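Subject line: Sequence and fold of a protein, written as structure tokens
Body of memo: The sequence and its backbone structure tokens, given next.
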Amino acid sequence: MDSELICKSFQKAVCSKIGLVPQGSDRYRILSDFTFQDGDHLSIVLKKENDEWILSDEGNTLMHLSYRMDIDELLQGKRGDIIENNLSYHSIKNRNGEFVHVITDGEYGYALFQMIQGLIRISDLFFLSREFTRSTFIEDVLGDIASIPELSDKFIRNWHSEKFDPEGQYPADGYLPTHKDKDPIVLFILPSDNKVLNATINLLQYAKWGLHVNSIGIFENQEKISRKPLAKYSDVSGKQYSNYHGNKKRIHDNLVNAVTGAI
């Protein structure tokens, strides 16, 4: 392999400030000015595997993201969808956390351009708006619950009463029928003051209709909810969990027991 020609290909396709540093047999560290938004440089190597040349981040990108969020959460829900879409668009493969671009037809420059663009877009997950981050929490929790085998065919997202609320003005985030003659469960996922206030209004309306349900509120972090909306919600709510991740197994077990009648 002519490393000088490949470096020139990188420089032509990406930018002039690209360098290659040998790191043993058939392995080079790629130097560039490209960084994550917090200033840390992208980590990319060019190496040979099974007679193929590949670009790899060697797991650095997910490790970098993990400093700010849990990797299991990162790969689920909307964040996970964003990552998968970006990887596919830029022809990058996820090999158990290592992002890899296989170089085909000698297109070294094109491959590096795609790799850099893909990694930078994924790193933008750091800087999702606050509201979008909240929405991912709701989707992540609902996705977790919907994936439980005992609940998957019974769980209803964005439920509303067809009888009392056909237009869906007072929805719950989730609904589960329960074992035998017990009241069904309505779930409210609560990442913010506004969601807590909406849940309070909806529960008051259910009571006004005479709609018998067991409500469960799952907070992202109850300590971040303002005192007044939390107090109002507590007056009308059923079971509450102060956070999801610390109570995940308990929540799942309790839901399964309520639906199946298991002890």
